[in-house]
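Aim 2, interim progress. The first record below pairs a target sequence with its structure tokens.
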Amino acid sequence: MAGFLFSLTDLAAACGNGLHTLYVAPLKALCVDMARNLGAVVDETGIAARVETRTGDTPQARRRRQRSDPPDILLTTPESVALLISWPEAGSIFGNLRVVVVDEIHELAGTKRGDQLALALTRLSALSPGHRRIGLSATVAEPVKLASYLDDGAGVMVVRADGGASPDITIMETGNRIPLAGHTARHAVPDIYRAIRDVGTALVFVNTRSQAERVFQDLWEINDDNLGIALHHGSLAREQRLKVESAMAEGSLRAVVATSTLDLGVDWGAVDLVVQIGAPKGVARMLQRIGRARHRMDEPSKALLVPANRFELLECQAVLDAIGEGVLDGAPRERGGIDVLAQHVLATAASGPFHPDTLYRDVIRAAPYESLERSLFDRIVDYVATGGYALVAYERFRRLTACDDGTLRIADEATARRFRMNAGTIVEDAKLKVRMKSGKVIGEVEEHFMLGLSPGETFAFAGEVWALIGIRQTDAIVTRARGGEPRVPIYGGGSFPPTTNVAGFLRKIMAEPDRRAVLPEDVREWLDFQAEFSVLPGVDDLLVETFPRADKVFLVAYPFEGRPAHQTLGMLMTRRMERMGAGPLGFVANDYALAIWSLRHVGDISALIDESLLLEDLDDWLAGSSLLKRSFRKVATVAGLIERQHPGYRKTGRQVTFSTDLIYDVLHRHEPDHVLLEAARKEAMDTLLETRRLEDMLVRVRGRILQRDLDTVSPLALPVMLEVGRQMVASSALDDLIEAFGGEP
């Protein structure tokens, strides 16, 4: 509430002059919760201020009214701000704006949503010069760099509050041995249930929506005490999410199983315990989640970490070590996205004519675009205006019209309308509404999952089991079901690698005996056995083990840099192994290791792993892969080249894929330097392939590769070998190894 002190003081003197304060947060739930708390303060103090939210859940009629009659305080998300500035009446909406509050700013900076907000803030500077900006965050690694997102040229004052009570975080000890592999943490479910039962209220965080559904079902099956346990994630219907949030605020629930939808700022002081199932992946993320418990400065937040497997336990300990040493995750990336800027150009045009010179001066005031070259800016504007010379003949891509005075305006109102229907930077797979026969909407599930079900098959969703009746257009018609083994929807996104800081602390645990001393006995034995059987790598070493199994040769490397970087490394290494005649047959990567199986042994691993992998092979491999098309699909959607939503209907995922692949082929053939192809390549390199992180790793391990040629699988290799699949290893032999190394698969 501290961010609103100036606003409340100002509004106490005078209200009703239009929008005074704009509050922007990354989550809809945070906006709703803040509106509830702020409304209570306004009511208690008698300030005659109107407080409202505006998100994708806000009814259309209210959104329309807010454009002509905005509230005194509006709480919203970056997407809604970008849409508001695209209306011709943006000047009247924001003309009296005095304050902008950006909450949890670290969550936005360095993302496409952050790029979108930074550009919107430059537009607000033009619409309402001199307004005050306030950024709020509890987990900032580099405050000065983060402050640049708010700077409109007048400078930013960084205010550091004294820290509160240190959090009380422990790794859960269960009566079972920690599994070698797996992601469900089912071995710990009875202990998690007892922890919930023994406190007043608990938040149980997981990393993915699929895991949320599984954990909720597992807890519900053993809920002999009939505890009030609810489920909350982004695919559930708005009504269900709001119902859970209200019940939690009222104290009528004992636990909520949630994903990142409840990560930030939701102020439930009555929460006694946070349970994190699975490795948290980042220090800031863990601190945010821990902060939901006992949300008070003078009381320590209490949290339990529940790793699903042994490598996750090492990662949990790495996060604890980082928190103990006061190390937070790093600063955001340096440059903003081309596709986000293209969307902003169209948003600006939708609100009224603009001059490219003026817009360029505004854009480079945004921190992510401060080093943007004018030539690249002009290419982006040309793309928005014409689609590029390969597409200029198609009228639907000509979205801007040049005026005699040098300004550009939107081609027509239909173009502006289509833009507003499709604006946004979050590109998700196509979804189907899960709807009961009565018409009630339960939520949304990704299209590819539902298309894989046959009528009558069951799946777990929203905490219940449903049977599919059939698919009608964009709806999956369902009915409640009982019994059987329901499938759990798999959602795109949601998975992320350990941050570089977490990975660094994990390597320290592997290398330093003192750090391993606090680990559970079975995990210490596992690592001690590894040290005897093979070796434990040093902090800057890369361990690579080879061993024969089932008429094949396996190579397992342990970079600890996350699945995306490991997948890229696997692709590049198998290409090089092919040229070396090793006969690679496939590979599997997880967040900790990479396993490749081949017909022949590779003698000199150092010749296989070096920086030239990136220089020699990456471009060739990328040009021949489907990854660029996948990246282009996302970029083209954000940049407005592909419009999924149309009046009266929405394109299916297959239709979008067909359209973008067709356009990609045209541009690749006739305009290979198109600005969106450049954006797609950058997107693939930075986010899908993690090339910068991979390059840093290759530089770090130069001359420090530990090659061990073994007779059989090592203890450290067992988890990734289980992911390779039992078909690659004789099951009886694998079972013997698991038993010998003291674990459960």
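The second target in this work package is listed in the same format:
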Amino acid sequence: MKTLFLIMAGLLVTTIGYSQNAKKLNKSGDVKLEAKDYAGAIEDYTKAIELDPKNEYAFLQRGIANAGLGDYSKASEDYDKAIAINPQNEEALDRGGYAKAQLGDNKAAIALYSKSIALDPIDGDTYFFRGVAKAETKDFKGALADYNKAVELKTTENEVYVRRGVAKAMSRDFKGAVVDYNKALELDPKNEEAYLGRGNAKSETRDLAGAIEDYTKVLEIEAGHLGALFSRADVYLKQKEYAKAIADYDKVLANDAKNEKALLSRAQAKTAAKDYKGAQADADKVIAINEKSDAAYVYRGIAKMKANDETEAMYDFDKALELNTKSELAYVYRGNLYQNKGDHTGAINDYTKAIELNPKNDQAYNNRGVVKDEIKDKTAMEDFNKAIGINPTNSEYFNSRGNAKKAIKDYKGALLDLNKAVELDAKNESAYLGRAAVKEALLDYKGANEDYTKALDLNANNGAALFSRGVAKTKLNDFKGAVEDYDKAIAIDANNANAYYNRGVAKQKIGQKESGCQDFDKATELGNTSAVNTKKVFCK
């Protein structure tokens, strides 16, 4: 087997026969090359070539010396000359292929590797390097075929498995990628690239905890590894661990304060954590670095929209589209703003524009479906189906479709979708609330109570959830528990007439008649029309 892997690790001296007249110079060049005196070696090989212009060996060795100096352009020229003298010089073909790949001419590299393989079809190293060149040209199918052949020929270097893992990931075979990264790590337990690649693949398969473990392992091997910090932050963001995400983005920015991508990602995390001023400040930094960053205006607009500054948010979305008329993100979020303002036509138009720009924009389909559902447009379900077809791992899309099915009293279908939503994201508060409402409609008050509790575990200050759990507890004859929930709901919203009314009923059930009657009076004061008659029944 030839020694292509050693091209990257070090330089070898070959033993091809050469012209007797240049023998002394070639030997001198070999000694200098072995000692990494590349300039001295080049000088000797050049003299040997002057004595014998057909000296194939001297051209090959001078190419190796030039490569040692990092001059792949001159190295490539020398390998080409060696090949011209002897088209069957496998080493010149292999090294020539590597040099051309280093120069970015991967098509030429593939051609040379293919000629070498034709001469020696059982050399796994050459298949590997041809695979690398094919991957660089985005021919991942061809790259996989070459990596498979390299493995079949028992090329055991862990780099083969790492590269094949990358090719599988690029082909969206993430499970297969994980298998290859596992093999690479068996061979080299400290291979950072394998941990990083495996983390990325696990993230794509929603093994977020596993991805975090792999990124953390990279950081144990190399503290401050920016790629691992960035990737781990992105996964923390997916996990809704906003403080941890921000902490990792902070570390990235400590090393590169002008990293636009990190600033915008941190802005997203801060927006999700309701630090709207901090998010706007990060977007402002990006705009100061690059005033034509349409994405910065979008993310600043999102933060402003969340802070209820709709006028300024609209300005930012419009500015983003002025800078980039093909910004899908700007159309989607401006559509969201139109939806918030009750402009259903404007929202649908923007979502439709995003879909025209990218027919696989799952978020635009979902959001358009939500607006259509609000206006009772029966084609809403088609949009939800399309969004889920494009991205079947997004919890929110199942939540949207589940709520739409709930609205048309397809409770069985709604339950299936909402079950899937919480399976995909155990922190989807909205999905728990929707599923609780479906269970109530199916008279499963125990199940409804459990789901309201899960939603409240995620957000203890959700007054609507507290009120609804109080209703479920009343149905379960847990009147004391119901009163406690209504107490909390009223503490959050002192003008909740229905909470006073329901609390009044529950209090009657546990003997707190006077206090219950006072709740009926308060409910009446706040506009609950049922309280007057109910008081007549209980408060004689």
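Confidence is low (pLDDT under 50) at residues 8-13, 15-19. This observation will shape the mutagenesis plan for the next reporting period.
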